[in-house]
Design brief:
Blueprint lengths: L4 H16 L3 H37 L2 H32 L9 H4 L2 H14 L2 H10 L11 H30 L5 H24 L1
Helix pairs in contact: 1-7, 2-3, 2-5, 2-6, 2-7, 2-8, 3-5, 3-8
Amino acid sequence: MTIGLGDLALYAGALLVLFLTPGPVWVALIARSMSGGFQAAWPLALGVVVGDAVWPLLAIYGLSWITAQYAGFLEVLQWVAVVVFVAMGVGLIRHAGHDIASNSSLTRPGMFAGFLAGLAAILGNPKAILFYLGVLPGFFDLSRVTPLDVGAIVAASILIPLFGNLLLAASIERARRLLSSAQALRRLNITAGVLLIAVGAVIAIS
């Protein structure tokens, strides 16, 4: 490896700060955890993993050229994310009075829907894009990195946010179990729906 452990540790610390800064992924994770519990949230965390692997790889292997060639495609991805979250939020609000288990908008899509939500959140997340494409190159000399270095950078980029997202989802799951009345469930679903729509709004105006 050409990168030092100190540089990697500093980068890991920056990733932790990035995770602790609320953004679209946080809002999406909280909303999905509130509506469907940990079972609904962990696939979203796995979807985020894909973006957390893609963005550093793009930064390392010549992002400036890629964005110049595919800037329009990245903008399309952003608007796809907007549509996904707004649609999910509207659907949840429409079924706010339904039991969670009977809400087909949450149960029928299953894990794949959660995975796609996480993928959309991270690919359209301006905070993540700015960090990986603008900040990551400042931690390492990307002209000298080896495949082992790249593996270490990508592993850190994946594991720290993944652990944080799963811990956040599990914490929300415990709080969610305390809300068992129909009235509390309705408020919970409406709040979750508003949060999902907020994700779409944040991505749209960013």
